[in-house]
Amino acid sequence: MPDSRAVDVVDLYLRKSTKDEGRSVERQLGELTDAAESEDLTIGRVFVDPDFSASRHRRRERPDFAALVEYIRSGACRVLGLFEVSRGSRDAAEWFAFLDLCRARGVRIWVSTHERVYDLSRRRDWRALADEGVDAADESEKIRERVLSGKRKAAREGKPSGRLQYGFTRLYDEKGRFVRQEAHPEQAPVVREMVRRITEGESLTAIARDLNERSLTMPGGAPWAGRFVRQMVLRPSYAGRIVHQGQDVGPASWEPIVDVDQWRKAVALLTRPERRTTTRGTELAHWLTNAVACGTCRTTKLRARTGGTKRPRVTYQCDGCGMVVSAVALEDFVEKVLLARLGRPDAAALLTRRTDDAATAAAEKELADLRGELEEWKALAKARKVSPASFAEFEADLLPQIERAEEKLRRLTVPPENADLSMSGVPARWPDLPAELKRRYVRALVDLMVHPAARRGPVFDPARLGASRWTGDALTWAEHWEAEGLAA
């Protein structure tokens, strides 16, 4: 590995987009290790993303590549080893940004197949790796074009493409070439049963529960759930139809495994707009279902119900004492109070548990110190005691450290069941959140309790929610309102 400057430690990044044989991460590591030993180099940190695509069409991000970026930003990496450029990325925009980061941090890149180290401060070296990145991205686009072309051809010919779906089996000749697709002897009857039961008015949840009780698991052994039953029944392939990019392009080359008319009826039932107003649909669509306690029964949770015929009205009702409250009124008021609280600067504190252990205290101090250091640099820059370039450099170093410190403190203070609930910009995101996610925020942040109305009237009385309190708060909402001089 010739280079004009001495190098003792080289960090490695390994990636393979599939699990097949070839240049596996094990082979990449072996060849890089052998090459490093021949140059008397020590292998430092090794970042590995097995079975991860690096093209711009990838469906998930690479965790170790993200860790590598943070590692480089920290200044810990001096030389990075790659088996070949395409292992780093097949996304031109991502690769250019990565090269810029390495150049800014003084990181050189060793490409094993090139048998050389690239110094990105040199124009020709940067150009060489930039060109390699464009070639890698172009190859990815060519592969994608071939795959899409194959799928279009299969669609025109009525042939299956992609992963084998539940309910079917595929036959191949002695050379491994596709012959035909046909009904699976054990799975196809299950599909027919699901379609039939939907047309008979049975709920998705009941069907899933029954399949699980009969030990009829999904592919891979996972238990059935109502949403999976729905996804399965809606597949046009069961009715012998080919759909390509959302368009029905004609009949398939295989025989339908369900009665086509029955399947169409099932699809119509599952996709009709009014389906959300059924009893169970009402519960799911209204986000305070099972999130509000009855003030009379104390423990009973209210559930959404639809009543009336001439003028249907959705309410939340207690199954214990029968107390009723308007769904629209309750949701509007809770949403108003919740979003106002989440709009405060200290909103994130609502999700944390109260603790004073040493680890949390140390994490809080680390975060405070880093934030304080950043504020000091801001003050120096504002007073023009440091140049804008110097401030930008220190800010670029401190911000990733602050993010890591915030995440560390979050892991120590946020209960595991709420770890995936982001408190960032909730008010702005709220209108687009699904009902189930809204319900999770409510359960995590507030103990809601509604009492019977003290008086009849068309206007919702906020005092009915006075006994509610923010999770972990010693004061009720009514006590907060009184302290703030607000009428309940």
Structure description:
The protein is α/β, with parallel strands linked by helices and 488 residues long. The chain folds into 4 domains: 135 residues, 3-Layer(aba) Sandwich (Rossmann fold), CATH 3.40.50; 104 residues, Putative Large Serine Recombinase, Chain B, Domain 2 (Hect, E3 ligase catalytic domain fold); 116 residues, no CATH class; 60 residues. The chain has 16 helices and 15 strands. The strands form 5 sheets. It has a 5-stranded mixed sheet with strand order 2-1-3-4-5, with helices on both faces. A 3-stranded mixed sheet has the order 10-14-15.
Biggest pleated-sheet summary: 5 strands, mixed
Percent range of helical residues: 40-55%
Query: Uncertain spans, ≥5 residues at pLDDT below 50?
Result: 2-6, 276-283
In the residues, how many domains can be counted?
4
Overall pLDDT metric: 80
Number of strands: 15
CATH architecture title of the largest domain = 3-Layer(aba) Sandwich
Terminal CA distance:
75 Å
Strand percentage: 5-15%
CATH superfamily of the largest domain, please?
Resolvase, N-terminal catalytic domain
**Which word captures the global form?**
flat
Radius of gyration: 30 Å
Structural class: alpha/beta
Query: What is the CATH topology assignment of the largest domain?
Result: Rossmann fold
Number of helices: 16
- Placed side by side, the strands forming the largest sheet appear as 2-1-3-4-5
For the record, the CATH class of the largest domain is Alpha Beta
